[in-house]
Sequence to fold (258 residues):
Amino acid sequence: MKKAFEQFRKSGSLFQIIKGPQHPESPKLFVLDSSFNPPHLAHFQLLFQTVKNFKLTDTQSHVLLLLAVNNADKLPKPASFPHRLEMMCLFADYLQEKLPHSVVSVGLTVHSKFIDKDKVLHEQFTQGRNTNIGYLVGFDTIARIFDEKYYHPLKISDVMKSFMSRGQLYCLARGDCHLNAESQLKYANDILEGKFEPVIPKEWGSRIHVMQNDYPSLRNVSSSEIRNKLKSGQVDNLKEELPPCVYDYVTKNMTIFD
Ligand SMILES: Nc1ncnc2c1ncn2[C@@H]1O[C@H](COP(=O)(O)OP(=O)(O)OP(=O)(O)O)[C@@H](O)[C@H]1O
Ligand SMILES: NC(=O)c1ccc[n+]([C@@H]2O[C@H](COP(=O)(O)O)[C@@H](O)[C@H]2O)c1
Fold:
């Protein structure tokens, strides 16, 4: 994975598939953009519930696990990018088994903001086809996508116009969030009712789909909490929070999070 990562870095490309088919013909692309530091079962649940509820009938979906080598806020640590790619590939195999009617791939991008990732993915996957792209996020990330500080001095209603007019945002409510579950679940409706006008145009509410996590025990799971448990040696508790393949990887390679 170190080689694949270095090649991407040197290539000057904006996006590259590292694992899986280069040009899947699916009409629906689901993108999980994450730091994968490490990937965990709340990420799995976000993917599983979205594909189950929003896939197009009788067609194969394409699930893309996307790692940005430049994060909007976080430094590239503690796990190095090659280690994260290893964990993403294990997670992709696990997903492929659980979602047999989807094709799963792993990709890298240089872009940190969703509006920029979206431009690149449209060029890559929708040319001459009618592919619909949906982005899978937790509620904290929705709040960050609509935070004006990332676009200053431009207005959100202008800068996000094409992103919000063609894509969908599939969102899983989180326990460890600034809003309670009830407020998270009515967020799309609040937008539709114009509560955040003029910053967020009300018609965008129809493109946002907020779900409750079917498993209450996963609502507070996060990569940082998992890293903390690893550091303090609470590894047994992690079996309920990580796919078995990722659990094996992190417990055999504990130093990657130092
Ligand atoms: N428990 C969860 N419930 C719902 N969404 C989640 C959960 N954990 C992560 N996500 C979402 O998955 C996406 C990618 O996650 P990210 O890599 O930021 O994971 P994280 O667990 O929040 O990481 P960290 O703790 O390092 O910040 C984000 O949009 C995030 O909101
Ligand atoms: N405004 C935006 O588009 C925006 C804001 C915050 C995070 N992100 C991206 O979301 C992804 C997940 O971020 P975190 O790992 O920080 O939760 C990263 O690729 C990050 O760069 C995008």
Summary: The chain has a mean pLDDT of 94.
